[in-house]
């Protein structure tokens, strides 16, 4: 009897290989052949699941966003009921403060770098910061709530890069976010 293959699980395994290459060398280093070698499978098998490098890269972006959204959704649910805690969970959720979020952030920022020259990726990622701010605006006091949130999200984006490049330690970035939240919420 033939072995049953979970096709979605196989796609995830291939995507994990894409992410490992992206974290180590950037998305420019991702090729079908490199991904096959990294995943320990044949190139034909990679091509069975992804007919092109672009399709594979775009699927990897969809997955990294899905992973980040799932993690952030769980954190937001835990903070439910306290507006400041919800905003804090969302903004701190953008930061690479542990191994899992560091990995997700490193992959996501590899995609952001590619978005500079890839209009399809840019179309997917360019609206994310403003969408997050717009989803939280009802929680923040004041007439400038949207501006405050957009600046807080922009701060977190910059701090995330700072952690990934070694400019900041994770706990420093959380302290900076808490400082801004104290000023925002009083």
Offer a quick outline of the entry.
With 186 residues, this protein is mainly alpha-helical. The chain has helices at residues 7-25, 32-39, 43-49, 53-79, 83-92, 99-115, 119-125, 128-136, 145-165, 170-185.
Task: Kindly describe this structure.
- It is a single chain.
- The protein has 186 residues and is mostly helical.
- It has a single domain (7-185), classed as Orthogonal Bundle (Tetracycline Repressor, domain 2), CATH 1.10.357.
- Helix content is 76%, strand content 0%.
- The protein has 10 helices and no strands.
- The protein has helices at 7-25, 32-39, 43-49, 53-79, 83-92, 99-115, 119-125, 128-136, 145-165, 170-185.
- The chain is elongated and about 65 Å long.
- The mean pLDDT is 95.
Secondary structure blueprint with pairings:
Blueprint: H1 7-25, H2 32-39, H3 43-49, H4 53-79, H5 83-92, H6 99-115, H7 119-125, H8 128-136, H9 145-165, H10 170-185
Helix pairs in contact: 1-2, 1-4, 1-6, 2-3, 4-5, 4-6, 5-10, 6-7, 8-9, 9-10
